[in-house]
Amino acid sequence: MTTILFRVLHVHPLPTLGVTIAAVDVLSGVVAPGARAYGSVAGKPVEMLVRSVALEGGRSRVDGTVTLQVELSGAEPPAAVEGAVFEVR
Fold it and tell me: How many degrees, rounded to 5, is the angle at CA 32 between CA 27 and CA 36?
């Protein structure tokens, strides 16, 4: 089974919708809607629920930059996740 990893490059919170737009670099695997990703920011666990992937077909390709619509839990401010690596489990 392939481990799915991605690095967050930039985030843009959308407070009226309760979601965040995140540009990520896919390091391995395929990121799909519904995925739950986990990482650590400043020693605290952070969870990310992927709501949608902005790429034709709804999936990302390996080794590419894609835009995700996500819900973040445990990251304040949301920009704190920039540079962090997340693993989909």
Answer: 85
